[in-house]
Structure formats: C-alpha cells, structure tokens
Specification:
alpha/beta; 9-stranded parallel sheet; 9 helices; binds pyridoxal-5'-phosphate
Length: 241
C-alpha cells in the first residue's frame, strides 16, 4: 500500500467513526506521526493532503523543520521534553505541543515564548491509565482520589496565569497493546476530566482532546477525540534510527 492509499483509508475510517457517533468528521484533525520516517515519506503524505505532522524527538524534528517543504505544514511536538530543552522547543515553531507534563516546564515555555513576543499553544499530558511508565499528570482516579484532583487543579490554576502559554486541552496515551475496546474507558475518562476542568476554569477554552493512535483511533474518535495521532497506519513500520 502506498502512503497516499494509507492516508485515504485512515480518512475514510475517521469519517466512519465520526459518523457512527454523531460527530462531524470536520471536528477531527489527523496528525500524521512522522517520527523515524524520512522527508520523502512526509512529502508523500503532504501530497495526499495531510497538513499536520507529529514528531517526538526535538533533534529529529528540528532537522525536518529546516527543510524548505516543511514551512507549509503544521508541526506537533508529541514526545516528552526535558526542561533544559524548553527554549529550543519554543524556537522550533511547533503549532502545538501535546506533551506538557509539569508546571516547571510550563513556566519555562511561557518565559521563552514571551521573550520572543510569542505564545505557545499546549496540551496537558494526562496519565489516565495509571501505568507507571507514562508521563503526565496522574489522573486514573481523579473523581475519588483527592490528591490527584488537587494536584492537577492547582497546576492548571498556576499555568492558566502564564502569559506566554495557551492551554488548549488534554492529551493522553492509551496503554500499550490492549484491545481497542479496553482502551475506550481511558479515552472516556480523559473527556470527562476535560469537562470537569472546563466547568471549573471558565476562562480557558479546553476544546482539544488529543487521543488515539494507529490501533485505537476509531474508538478515540467515538469518545470525542479532536486530534488523532496516527503513525504506522500511514507510514508503515518506523525505519530511521
Ligand atoms: C509514536 C506515537 C504515536 C503514533 O503511534 P502509531 O502506533 O504509530 O500510530 C502517537 N502518539 C505518540 C505520543 C507517539 O509517540
């Protein structure tokens, strides 16, 4: 299958999933995760109409963003970022950073963005499955565990004040290798958490839910995803080191 055929298939499934849950397919944006894939592969996806690309490593992203054809595309940082790399992430010019996972990093993003007279659009990464290996704010049981709720609510309160940051929503990674139907509650939990935060932080507009990858994006769409991050279904297995 060519990349163009893959893109067409993913788009068709996106539409099906949206329609099956009474949503408009326009409400769901496809982010093609191009990590460990070449510029030629990115170009092929762009020619098939993909406008948004996701990368998880800053160095790889920076070299791709330097290519002339990259300027017309929107780039998403989806991987963990160390605090000391915050300045470089701001300078790289991502349209959206999905992986904000600490107040400390938020403060640095805000400061560097402000220095450049910009603001950085971010999503808060939330660990809704409780897996110890995942980054993000722990929220696998925020309805019942006061600590989880309090920590996250305080963090949002602090970050909402930062002048160089635009908090646009939430992102999560589902547990690896489980049946998509088993991940459904994880996606639903993220949406309910967003609804609760939106209810309490009326000055924010938390419209974005980044959830769903190759194995589970249809379920994620049915549960309210507005961004899906799809790698293998578009580009095949990852190749570059
Ligand atoms: C790699 C990656 C994806 C894409 O995964 P696929 O299974 O290839 O679709 C999505 N989100 C994040 C954060 C990733 O690191």
């Amino acid at each position: 299958m060519s990349i163009a055929e893959n893109v067409a298939r993913v788009r068709q499934q996106l539409r099906q999933a949206a329609e099956s849950s009474g949503r408009s397919s326009d409400a769901v944006r496809l982010v093609a995760v191009s990590k460990q894939h070449s510029l030629a592969a990115i170009q092929a996806a762009a020619e098939a109409g993909v406008t948004d690309f996701g990368e998880n490593r800053l160095e790889e992203a920076t070299s791709k963003l330097a290519a002339p054809q990259a300027a017309a595309l929107r780039w998403h940082m989806i991987g963990h970022v160390q605090s000391r790399k915050a300045r470089d992430v701001v300078a790289a010019g991502f349209s959206l950073v999905h992986s904000l996972d600490s107040v400390r990093l938020a403060e640095r993003y805000s400061r560097f963005a402000q220095e450049g007279a910009q603001s950085l659009a971010v999503l808060l990464e939330i660990n809704v499955s409780g897996e110890a290996t995942k980054s993000g704010w722990l929220a696998y049981n925020w309805e019942n565990e006061k600590d989880q709720r309090q920590t996250l609510w305080m963090a949002v309160q602090q970050m909402a004040q930062l002048p160089g940051l635009r908090l646009l929503g939430l992102m999560t990674m589902a547990p690896w290798g489980t049946d998509p139907e088993q991940t459904r509650p994880v996606f639903r939990r993220l949406r309910l958490l967003r609804d609760a935060l939106q209810h309490d932080f009326t000055a924010l507009e938390l419209d974005v839910l980044s959830m769903g990858m190759t194995d589970d994006y249809m379920v994620a769409i049915q549960e309210g995803a507005t961004l899906i991050r799809v790698g293998r279904a578009i580009f095949g297995e990852r190749t570059l080191q």
